[in-house]
Write a structure and sequence with these properties.
SDR_fam; 49% helix; oxidoreductase; single chain; oxidoreductase activity; 273 residues; Sc_DH/Rdtase_CS; 7 strands; Rossmann fold; SDR family NAD(P)-dependent oxidoreductase; 11 helices; alpha/beta
Length: 273
């Protein structure tokens, strides 16, 4: 048990982040959880009902000010564990996307994430102790037709964490783990306006409980990275040897608006009721 240790979990109102928070609480960490929506309060109540010590904050982590607000909420307490899970998706063709929308994806998935990592990792490396889990994605291995900005941000995160892990390798007591799931059954596709796509309507996406457990186990073992799910492991391996044009066309078939068949949409609607 982590008795008395302190963890920050971002994007913790639902999905993978909420499940990671539950695992951290179960391991004995005191929690500071954050999301950019009021639902984070309900998430905190749920975790407290399980016996966790939790503080919740609503903050926009696409801004440096939002990240600073999160860090201020620690009141100077040492951060023993960080799960940098906050992320935002965006569907449709790039030329049709609103500038404010794609900038928020970039600022949430990249700018806010790496600013938070720089702040937290500096202290961890200085004392040679700490654990960090960053949620990347196997989407970073594929040109994301009709999800181009999102996939590009995850390619950045997957690559960035590999680089920083090497930079801090002398700090043996600090681990930086990248969690790379595939499509997960969360609110992601609804928020990204992708429910009419083949991938959005697919009812066989990964369970966030399983993905969080994979990430947690890898984090606790000090692994560099983990691809969650055997199908995603195969997809990652194939992506390394498949031409970019082929991958882009494959992604188009999954993510193009209206790509979900009537049968897929009907199954998705039945599953939601």
């Amino acid at each position: 048990m982590a008795n008395g240790q302190y963890a920050i979990i971002t994007g913790a109102s639902t999905g993978i982040g909420f499940e990671l928070a539950g695992l951290a609480a179960q391991a004995g960490y005191d929690l500071l959880i954050v999301a950019d929506e009021p639902l984070i309060t309900a998430a905190a109540d749920d975790l407290r009902a399980r016996g966790a010590t939790v503080e919740a904050i609503e903050a926009d982590l696409s801004t440096l000010e939002g990240v600073d607000r999160l860090l201020d909420a620690t009141n100077g307490r040492r951060i023993d564990l960080l799960c940098a899970n906050a992320g935002r998706g965006l569907g449709h063709g790039f030329l049709d996307q609103n500038v404010d929308d794609w900038r928020r994806v970039l600022d949430t998935n990249i700018t806010g994430t790496i600013y938070l990592l720089q702040k937290v990792l500096k202290d961890m490396v200085a004392r040679n102790d700490g654990k960090v889990l960053v949620t990347g994605s196997i989407a970073g291995f594929m040109p994301g037709s009709f999800q181009a900005v999102y996939n590009g941000t995850k390619a950045f995160i997957d690559n960035f964490t590999d680089a920083v892990r090497n930079e801090i390798k002398e700090a043996k007591g600090v681990t930086l783990t990248t969690l790379m799931p595939g499509p997960v059954e969360t609110e992601f596709f609804d928020r990204a306006d992708m429910l009419d796509t083949s991938v959005g309507a697919d009812r066989h996406k990964s369970d966030p409980v399983d993905v969080a457990q994979d990430g947690w186990d890898a984090l606790m073992a000090g692994k560099a990275s983990i691809v969650s799910g055997w199908k995603n492991k195969v997809q990652q391996a194939l992506a390394n040897v498949t031409p970019a044009g082929v991958l882009a066309e494959q992604h188009r078939k999954m993510a193009e608006p209206g790509s979900a068949s009537p049968e897929e949409l009907a199954k998705a609607e039945r599953a939601d009721h």
